[in-house]
Amino acid sequence: MQSTSLARTVAIIGLGYVGLPLAVEFGKKRKVVGFDISAARVAELQAGQDHTLEVEPEQMRKAVHLQYTTDPAALQGCDLFIVTVPTPIDEYKRPDLTPLIKASTTIGKVLKKGDIVIYESTVYPGATEEDCVPVLEQYSGLKFNVDFFAGYSPERVNPGDKTHRVTTIKKVTSGSTPEVADLVDALYNEIVTVGTHKAPSIRVAEAAKVIENTQRDVNIALINELALIFNRLGIDTEAVLQAAGTKWNFLPFRPGLVGGHCIGVDPYYLTHKAEAIGYHPEIILAGRRLNDSMGAYVVTQLVKAMTKRRIHVRGARVLVMGLAFKENCPDLRNTRVVDIVRELTDYDVQADVHDPWVSVEEAQLEYGITPVRQPEGGTYDAIIVAVAHEQFKAMGAAAFRALGKPEHVLFDLKYVLTASESDLRL
């Protein structure tokens, strides 16, 4: 095994929200091969553009040692591989390791003695050594921790966040041997300016990642449940949270839809592993069920409000403002706004979606939804503010109201407006 990380050529496998920023930062300092199976994605990056908006063209130009490719043969000259592929769940909410296994297969075919494979994808504790390493051994013919080594350093990318970047978020690192752990830690310290935390094992690092978002998911579920209770009591949830927030140790969570590639997915990786070892996780799964039910709850509340105003629900037109899973980013992965759209459709409501951030083509491909580019004023029976994009915050209540018919319901899910400016809030 090489004694220093400085001599190594890095391959980044997967050039999405996680892989590209990592490849660009390393590409400023050392030779990097950025690999992705999508020819369109690689062509886009070769042209100096990133449709995810995570990396500016200026930063991409600074990565002078970075090349982009779809050719697995280009990986043969690399000796340190970092895997940043998605780890989704399937329709039954079970972990889908297919991208991870395929990436491991690709690496296994070019793996050499002394090479190191680092995984960043979110997994359950044990997945690196129990699921990925055997694939590397199978396709390389090499023996783990004798001929090649592994590490795990969980990604902490926050899409759309221009403050917390890959270089300014403390990085958890780990390795399959003490020497490899030191090497992996030194590697990331080349680009992470705020330092690293070296975990005692790969399994600890995996567990640390999967509970980060599980903790947030459970906390949001609690606030969502409180919102349901306060709604029945006729109390404004935001007013309650503002009052409670005056205590120094009250956590500032807010109710809402819980989607995205992390919070709405990662808990299922932990619960899957827990059930595999014979433990049924009550609190985590209860939180997931509650958060997954919020889209239906929103539509139920809207329908009640429309009925009270004698607005005929069947055949009504409703405008849903926002489709991305969070504000100020184009990311559509696991967005729960689609739950609202589908629930409205079940009521025979015509639901239009408007989101200036998302790709119309991607929305059509992923969800069969064609966002309207510019909503027509005065045509909607209800308006739902589902995502707090800056453009929506800047509109003001009058602009939202102008989109509705003389009699309409304005439902603000994101506290973009004050309580007096909207008809409904969570």
SSE layout and pairing:
Blueprint: E1 10-13, H1 19-27, E2 32-35, H2 39-46, H3 57-62, E3 66-69, E4 80-83, H4 98-108, E5 116-119, H5 127-140, E6 149-152, E7 171-173, H6 178-189, E8 196-198, H7 202-233, H8 237-244, H9 266-276, H10 282-292, H11 294-308, E9 317-321, H12 337-346, E10 350-354, H13 360-367, E11 380-385, H14 390-393, H15 397-402, E12 404-412, E13 424-425
Parallel strand pairs: 1-2, 1-4, 2-3, 4-5, 5-6, 7-8, 9-10, 9-11, 11-12, 12-13
Summarize the structure.
The chain has 426 residues and is α/β, with parallel strands linked by helices. It has 15 helices and 13 strands.
Characterization of the model:
The protein has helices at 19-27, 39-46, 57-62, 98-108, 127-140, 178-189, 202-233, 237-244, 266-276, 282-292, 294-308, 337-346, 360-367, 390-393, 397-402; strands at 10-13, 32-35, 66-69, 80-83, 116-119, 149-152, 171-173, 196-198, 317-321, 350-354, 380-385, 404-412, 424-425. By secondary structure, it is α/β, with parallel strands linked by helices. A six-stranded parallel sheet has the order 3-2-1-4-5-6, with helices on both faces. It has a five-stranded parallel sheet with strand order 10-9-11-12-13. Helix 7 packs across helix 9 (266-276). The N and C termini lie far apart (56 Å).
